[in-house]
Amino acid sequence: MEKKQFQAESKRLLEMMINSIYTQREIFLRELISNSSDAIDKIYYKALTDDSLVFDKDSYFIKITADKDNRILTIRDTGVGMTKEDLENNLGIIAKSGSLAFKKENEAKDGHNIIGQFGVGFYSAFMVADHIAVTSKALGSDTAYKWESDGADGYTIAPAEKDSIGTEIVLSIKANTEDDNYDEYLDEYRLKAIIKKYSDFIRYPIKMDITGKRLKEGSESEFEDYQEEQHVNSMVPIWRKNKSELTPEDYEKFYHEKHYGFDKPLKHIHVSADGAVVYQAILFIPENMPYDYYSKEYEKGLELYANGVLIMNKCADLLPDYFSFVKGMVDSESLSLNISREMLQHDRQLKLIAKNISSKIKGSLQSLLKDEREKYEQFYKSFGRQLKFGVYSDYGTHKELLQDLLMFSSSKEKQLVTLEEYVARMPEDQKYIYYASGESMERIDKLPQTELVTDKGYEILYFTDDIDEFAIKMIMTYKEKEFRSVSSGDLGIDVEDNANDSESDKKENQDLFDYMNGLLAGKVTSVKASKRLRKHPVCLSTDGDVTIEMEKILNAMPNNPNVKAEKVLEINVNHDVFTSLKDAFEKDKEKLNLYTALLYNQALLIEGLPLQDPVEFTNDICKIMV
Q1: Class assignment of domain 406-485?
Q2: Is the pTM value of this prediction over 0.90?
């Protein structure tokens, strides 16, 4: 029998593919099953135009058989089969796909589609087999043919005996090596797991003889093994069923079966799109954050199927980072696959699906916020931080999309409020959306800077996440209202100054502040009379875009950028401390130096900033005690 050689290009492609294209050997079974499914589909298509053919779906199946003793794995189908010419063209020339050619000749009808399009998946079997024999009898043919190959060296084709139409692929599984265990591809439970993982939703039955145990006949304690043919794939995926047929329990069961999480999903989104791009999707918004969510190990992405065949476990391109918490899957007939079927071409269809999915997720979250507030707040406590990162990232590109989903605790009721709710209840005379940053709500409540805003009856948003202020800086304004920190130098609140009205008093106070500013040169940009303080003697405010809280966060990062806020020391001129300052300015500059250092360090402590010299601070306290 003459041994034929692969074309030079095909030979190089085969060698490359076996060694490098596929990252997981188990993919070979998915590829062979997909080819078998295609072969059955072809009979279906022919039956649509050939009255002599009757397509009885129950008569078509794929059978997987493992022979451990002889190290043989067989994949048999009842599909259209191949002629000698088909074997020559489809298996003798790598990357020439019969499925692709057939697809061009026959447009998909009734929801069927041809899976394989590139014709190289078959050769992935050489990753696990050192010899492959394909025996096939084509529909309408009286003669069967066998194609055999040991790999890149070439192949033979000869007449063969086969009673029924279809194709039988026999793999001689490689012997184990020190580094590789090939026995797993002969283990029925491992094979079943691979089928469930990749081919669970192939629309034809995939059969296997599964071993079980039963009592021996006539015995009450002795068991024997027996084999029973079983369908190992589900065939009809949940996402292709009508939504009206499904219950919340069905979706929750699917969530757990797919191991999307151990919690209960807060909400599911079932999408059936039939427009510019055709796809089905089931998405879940989880209840709890995965333990590794903010670690390098966490992998975002949705399961991606092409016509029911799993292509990728985690397709990151389908989810933006700010929605990376979403779990679920997408199945599409519109996607193009590359030669390995493992990586998608990032084409227009994929981008359209990703855009639609993002819109669906946002709409679902808005619905949750509007109709199920308690559930949304539960979600937000788990994933709100990620939404804020989304606002901040990419220079605020996504702020319009996400800003209505944000929530912050507020001084009114100490509960979460949206920006829309805050603006809706602003008094007419309030110019800005006020916020205060700090480690906790309790600490913010004690900040001296909040006194004036609180006295005016204005609501304050509490920023307790390190990302909060950075995200708001990207938004800048919401419904034409600018955000303003309570520590800002200008609060936009008119205040009547009743103290020290005379020009001479103002001049004297300014001389005092200039003197104190000289003492604190390099630490503050100025010292001035405060219009915001009521009970407290001193506080720090800021000029410029960088606030004190932002300074703390930035300087706590690796490769410390040493960012400094432009700090202003504000003195309450109506406090008794100010009287002591004026008296010291007139009579005892050394004492004024001491008071200035103490007030500055007190202001630092209030802000949670480190003291430059704690020992000096304690010594200064001791000086005023003696």
Answers
A1: alpha beta
A2: no
